[in-house]
Amino acid sequence: MARRAEAAGPGFGVIDAPLVSGIGPLLIVELLTLGLGAGFLAGLLGIGGGMLLVPFLTLIIAARGVPPALAVKMAIATSMATILFTSLSSLRAHHRHGAVRWPLVRGLAPGIVLGGLMSGAGVFALLKGQGLAVVFAVFVGFSALQMLRDRKPAPHRQMPGWAGQMGAGGTIGLVSGLVGAGGAFMSVPFMLWCNVPLRHAVGTSAALGFPIALSATAGYVIGGWSLPPALPGAVGYLYLPALFTIAAASVLMAPLGARTAHRIDVQSLRRLFALLLMALAATMLWRVFA
Fold first, then answer.
1. Which of 92, 98, 106, 100 minimizes the C-alpha distance to 43?
2. Transmembrane ranges (predicted)?
3. How far apart are CA 89 and CA 35, in angstroms?
4. C-alpha span between 19 and 16 (Å, rounded)
5. Whole domain around residue 158: which residue ranges?
């Protein structure tokens, strides 16, 4: 029997959401499969898996009676929280290959944390789910086009100074918190634009995934604390059964993806990244306007 859940905030009002009782084997299989794929991509491309998780988690959560607008928000928040686990596993593998540029991490991380907190605790709660889906698709699609163009940056261009890195990090953290991704869809193209080699950009992006996820997840918890659960096991915008199941599977696969990234052609990696981003952007737009 359906229970009524009242969710305060723009885009919700009163929600008639049938709450499922318990977690069935089908849901576990879906989440494990999604986690394995997300973990591999997190290691391979340094993306934290978020761009794969958000579209599919939206489908999984909405299929269990949650209104689409709320399902998008829960998918984004849960996806970002899984990056707390996958980023550490991926980071370890990339660090072993010497692919993490720690000075860049130290320069970008403060802005990322500030942007992530602002996004998760403020802007995220104010935007409607449909608006967040459009933001996700637009930024992901733009990043993919930039990578497919394969334009060579000016050879003299380097990473900006402290203020520039603070601003870039703040933008990456803010947008990442809105779309539930680890930031690679912005940080990798940005670092490539500044003549950072692709493998180093991917490895450094993996290291930046943790501060992005930590700050944005803290913001989601603060912003959604007063919301009633839309599903059993949900805490505000976080869907804990999905979080822990996906995280466990992702951590197992992230090292394999990272090892693969250091064995394949750089241009193939670039094209794979771009095509994946375009496919996921199209998926989110289809969900919004279909």
1. 92
2. 12-34, 40-63, 70-88, 108-127, 132-148, 168-194, 206-225, 237-257, 269-289
3. 13
4. 9
5. 24-289
Asked if the structure places residue 219 within a domain, the reply is yes
Number of domains forming the structure of the chain: 1
The answer to whether the pTM exceeds 0.70 is yes
| Tokens found for residue 130 | 């449909």
What angle is formed at CA 55 by the lines to CA 169 and CA 127, rounded to 5 degrees?
Answer: 60
Smallest Cα–Cα separation from 70: which of 213, 216, 229?
Answer: 229
Query: In terms of Cα–Cα distance, which of 258, 278, 239 is closest to 86?
Result: 258
CB-based contact 204:151 (threshold 8 Å) = no
Band of pLDDT at residue 223, cut at 50, 70 and 90:
confident
7 three-class SS: strand
Residue 89 tokens, joined = 């596993």
Are 180 and 58 a contacting pair, CB within 8 Å? no
For residue 142, the one-letter residue type is F
